[in-house]
Amino acid sequence: MIPNSFLILAGGESSEKEISLQTGKSVYNAMQTLGWRSKLKIIHTFDEILHLNLLENPYVFLAFHGGFGENGCVQSFLSSKKFFYNGANPISSGIGINKLLTKLIASSLNIPCPKYILWNPEFEKKYSYNVVKHKLGSPFIVKPVSQGCSKGLSFVRNEHQYIQALQKASTFENQILMEEFIEGREFTVGILAGDILPMIEINHSHILFDYEAKFVSESTSYKEFSVLNSLKKYISQLSFELFKVLNIHDYGRLDFILDAHNIPHLLEINTLPGLTEKSVYPQACALKKIPYEEMIKKIIMSATIK
């Protein structure tokens, strides 16, 4: 049953606020096209969430990306009030936003992940550039543990870049992930209402699929991921298992890279994937002949029965 009123929440305090605002606007426009009564509310602080009048809106559509809107805080509050909302539950949201926890869960399911080292200021002397290079090979990746949209991401080839990368990532948070660089084909696997969506391959001219490649570059393109059916089936099984363990049913997205030996390595999970016009997730739905408005309807209907 479709609720009769919706409150769309967007904004937040994270570095992904700009993309959240775009997602919120896209979702609002879709609901207007569907003829649904909806309101778009721009949020600046978590305290505003606690003082919202939610009684008029039985369904809250979360258009947040990162920060308190995706890390389980908002989800915990809404769950305690027994309101419907989209995306993962509080625990899975907390796991999904943390790249280290995601790796630990994935590894327990025998899902391949790039080799990594967890860094924080206490480990500064322990993990010199040469130590990291020896463990991960060169080049390698440096990124904050809990940032999305590839914020704070760096590609490291030498000691000077390593120092710069740590400084860059540290502007977002103290916990930093240093990760093996795997050259290969980047692709995503989404789920919508319990069904795995067509896989999308990402083509771009950047060294990494960073913020600029995702949202600024005009050369980034998407197409259906073309591999042997047996490999596609294997990837689908891995993805479905991870979604199932994390109790993600209505929608979500996994990012992978396929190496030269056709081994898929999980990079991260997105529990509230971007829904802008340039986002990957709606592209996957389009390959399944699901228009944007129908995608929103499926997300909502699935979320109300979870």
From TrEMBL:
Binding site for Mg(2+) 1: D255, E268
InterPro entries per the UniProt record, alphabetical: ATP-grasp (IPR011761), ATP_grasp_subdomain_1 (IPR013815), D-Ala_lig_Van_CS (IPR000291), D_ala_D_ala (IPR005905), Dala_Dala_lig_C (IPR011095), PreATP-grasp_dom_sf (IPR016185)
Chief place of localization: cytoplasm
Cofactors named for this entry: Mg(2+); Mn(2+)
GO cellular component: cytoplasm
Cofactor, how bound (note): Binds 2 magnesium or manganese ions per subunit.
A Pfam family it matches: Dala_Dala_lig_C
Protein family membership: Belongs to the D-alanine--D-alanine ligase family.
Protein name in UniProt: ATP-grasp domain-containing protein
Species name: Bacillus thuringiensis serovar sooncheon
